[in-house]
Amino acid sequence: MRREIISTGLAMLTLVGSAAAESAIPERWIHPACTPLEVTKNGTFVQLDDGALMTIDKDVLRTSTDGGKTWSEGGEPIASGVDLNYVGHVGQFLRTKTGVLVLLFLDFGAYKWSWDNDRGAPNADCTLELWAIRSVDGGKTWSDKQRLLGGYNADFMGFIQTSDGRLVATCEHLVPELKRWVCCSFISDDDGLTWRQSNLIDLGGHGHHDGAVEPMVVELKSGRLLMLIRTGLDQFWKAYSDDDGRYWRTIQPSGIDASSAPGWLTRLKSGRLVLAWNRLNPEGRSFPKGNSAGPAFEFPASWHREELSIAFSEDDGDTWSTPVVIAREAGAQLAYPYILERSPGELWIFTRYTYHQGGQPAPPVAVSLREEAFVAR
Q: Do 215 and 316 share a structural domain?
């Protein structure tokens, strides 16, 4: 048997390989209202006006004109350090209203995960920097590369353009002195040419997975911004910004039960919000927290990732529909979801961190569903 530990701070898994383990892989269940996708990439995507898709495949921009079945070949690497094929959401990109492509990414060219369990703190050489780069010619050339955050940063789920044109990215940062994660946002009013950082959101905790991590963001109908934050506190916490992400001054529990795993939050053409995530417990039973405190958390936290659920909100996140499980696999990790609204009411849902029981790599969840099939009338 081979046992290997891989850690990128917020993406941590155990790989166990053996013939016996491979033969014992449980069957994955998919909700009958979901349709498997014939898509060979799992996002994130930019959708062009003609329906073509763009994605960043490792460090090369590729396009598809057949719904993601095949992708363009060739292409020049975007920049050193870009590696969007890595586990989790290590980069996000979008196309602005003026047609500029903007990419935020974690620089794997200088990556080193280094945590001292005795001190309960990162070592001085613990490094994964957050950078930005953009293209004004549809991805033919890239320029204006700049570092947004030094030190160690990890997966991030939020990158949007607001109705008034501001770019808002919600990120996380490991603070050595605090020995935990905090969240913040970066904003740009010039299509990613320059950036400003917000205040830090600190929820306390102690450990290499503790604190405020992997935030999502969405613009509300009122113009406020809503951030949902992964925690080890049995639920997402939420924060509001009244100035398009410059400051976050209202911070409180969300009431949405969640394991220590991120979700994906987006607004649909219908005006509803949709959230995909791993709940605190599997449907109908509890999930033991075990001895998860120590290096990872100050107090035990749930690592449940066997089920992927979705819920909808009609009132900008004040209340949510009853969660529905769309994918389930015993002992597996169906985590780090991503949602693309391919056409009005047609949702493509993927996972970016997908492992069978025992940590064996597994195909991602890749399904399409109709919004109306999951919304009560």
A: no
- 294 versus 122: which is more confidently predicted? 122
| Beta-bridge partners for 367 | 36, 349
Note down the domain range covering 287.
258-377
pLDDT of 218 higher than 50: yes
Per-residue pLDDT tens for 206-217?
A: 999 999 999 999
DSSP, residue by residue, 19-40: HHHHHTPPPPEE-TT-EE---S
With 50 as the cut, is the pLDDT of residue 313 above it? yes
Lowest mean pLDDT among 15-29, 143-157, 291-305, 361-375: 15-29
Give this prediction's pTM.
Answer: 0.93
CA pair distance 151, 348, nearest whole angstrom: 34
> Count of residues for the chain?
377
Do 203 and 114 fall within a single domain? yes
Q: Three-state SS for 360?
A: coil
226 and 272 co-located in one domain: no
Q: Are residues 226 and 100 in the same domain?
A: yes
Burial class (CB in 10 A: 0-12, 13-18, 19+), 98: exposed
First to last CA, the chain: 52
CA distances from 154 to 108, 150, 332 (A): 11, 11, 22
User: Does residue 4 form part of some domain?
Assistant: no
Report the SS3 class of residue 109: helix
Q: Mean pLDDT across the stretch 305-334?
A: 97
Dist CA 186 CA 153 (whole Å):
14
pLDDT for 377 equals 55
243 and 312 in a single domain? The answer is no
Beta pairing class for 264-267 and 273-277: antiparallel
Query: Rounded distance, CA 310 to CA 325, Å?
Result: 7
Q: Which of 5-9, 196-200, 248-252, 291-295 has the lowest mean pLDDT?
A: 5-9
Token pair for 47: 């959708």
- Does residue 297 sit in the same domain as residue 216? no
